[in-house]
Specification:
By secondary structure, the chain is of the alpha/beta class. About 35% of the residues lie in helices and about 20% in strands. It has 13 helices and 17 strands. The strands form four sheets. Strands 4-12-11-10-7-5-6 form a seven-stranded mixed β-sheet, with helices on both faces. Helix 3 runs parallel beside helix 10 and helix 11 runs parallel beside helix 13. It is globular, with a radius of gyration of 21 Å.
Length: about 400
């Protein structure tokens, strides 16, 4: 008999009743160090006083009014995102997939409004992950996600990640733009090479097409800057955000330049829940924390120390850990053993992680993680590696 919840997740037999900082607690009192953060979403950890207070106070006033009316909280959040990014205007939605759908529509609409309706195709990259809607599984391109859902949505062309020659060869008369993750999270914590994003920007400028960044996982402080593109020295034309933007409350956003945003007029795009008072309040509370003096610097400092310790662990156990990948607090261990086995071994030690593609174990702790938390995580990882490294004694 089927469960009341559709069986589309392989859920661990764990249920958490409360959290504090980087830790989660089950009803029976077990404690787990959360180095998955709801898949890089609980950016301020669990029970953050500023975020929880802001949500509770706003919920007691008004949660939702719809976009038929002005929403001052969303106006404030949009102005702050504009102030601290390349963008000139922001559209709010509910999730990362919706943000990416909006980004694709904005790229196509901009081309059409500028006299090039024939330019509607988007170049994406092998190993990408852009969401689970019908269009976004097509943008992702993973056959496992597309199988059984009919023909892929047309309009997405895929080339190898970090290959500028292949990218340039793929640009044709129907190309409208490029969408790329600065670090492929689901694809195995694969980072763009130092010349890749600048090369994409140069190609877009040369061919008159638009550059879109999927910063759903890398944005909102995850790499030690508010947005990952800041490390590259370039700016995109449009960018999608979600995950850490609400600190666990559902909210997504598309940030765009005026040249892109001016084409989204009444009737061209919309949402019921996006940017409602409660969601926007959550986003503002997250920004309050992230823009506080020293916050992003502490993320970068913590990330450097954590990566150093992970590389030392990999050096001690090269038969299990091939490589440490990623940037900031979006890190991955490329393994020789199945990443699902390593994930299970970590749970046995009290550490929560997330599997990713390319047999990588993803580590994405809350950005408020402490040095003591990181030391505990390294100890748990070491014990998990040892458990997987010990030869199995044959049954007598």
């Amino acid at each position: 008999m089927i469960s009341a919840l559709m069986p589309n997740y392989n859920r661990a037999d764990l249920a958490f009743e409360r959290g504090e900082g980087a830790w989660l607690f089950t009803a029976d009192g077990r404690r787990f160090l959360d180095f998955g953060a709801g898949i890089a979403t609980s950016s301020l950890g669990h029970g953050h006083p500023g975020l929880t207070r802001a949500i509770a106070e706003q919920a007691a006033r008004v949660m939702h009014v719809s976009n038929l009316y002005r929403i001052p909280q969303a106006e404030t959040l949009a102005a702050r995102l504009v102030e601290h990014s390349f963008g000139d205007s922001v559209f709010f939605c509910n999730s990362g997939a919706e943000a990416n759908e909006g980004m694709v529509k904005m790229i196509r609409k901009t081309m059409a409004e500028n006299g090039h309706p024939e330019r509607w195709r988007i170049i994406c990259f092998d190993g990408a992950f852009h969401g689970r809607t019908l269009a976004m599984i097509s943008a992702t391109g993973n056959p496992n996600y597309i199988k059984g859902f009919g023909p892929p949505v047309d309009g997405f062309d895929h080339v190898p990640f970090n290959n500028l020659n292949a990218l340039r060869d793929a640009i044709g008369p129907e190309t409208a733009g490029i969408i790329v993750e600065p670090i492929q999270g689901e694809g195995g914590i694969r980072s763009a090479s130092p010349d890749f994003l600048p090369g994409l920007r140069a190609a877009c400028d040369e061919f008159g097409i638009l550059l879109g960044l999927d910063e759903i996982q890398t944005g909102m402080g995850r790499t030690g800057k508010l947005f990952a593109y800041e490390w590259s020295g370039i700016t995109p034309d449009v960018m999608s955000l979600a995950k850490g933007l609400g600190g666990g409350f559902p909210v997504g956003a598309v940030v765009a330049t005026e040249a892109v945003a001016r084409n989204i007029r009444p009737g061209t795009h919309g949402t019921t829940f996006g940017g409602n008072p409660l969601a926007a309040t959550a986003g503002n509370a997250v920004l309050d924390a992230m823009l506080a003096p020293g916050f992003l610097e502490s993320v970068a400092t913590r990330a450097v120390a954590l990566r150093r310790d992970l590389e030392a662990l990999a050096a001690d156990y090269p038969s299990v850990i091939e490589e440490v990948r990623g940037q900031g607090l979006l890190l991955g261990l490329k393994l020789t053993v199945p990443n699902t086995a390593m994930q299970a071994a970590c749970v046995e030690q009290g550490l929560l992680t997330v599997a990713a593609g390319d047999n990588v174990l993803r580590l994405a702790p809350p950005l408020i993680v402490t040095a003591e938390d990181c030391a505990a995580a390294i100890m748990m990882l070491r014990r998990a590696v040892i458990a997987l490294s010990e030869p199995k004694v044959a049954a007598q």
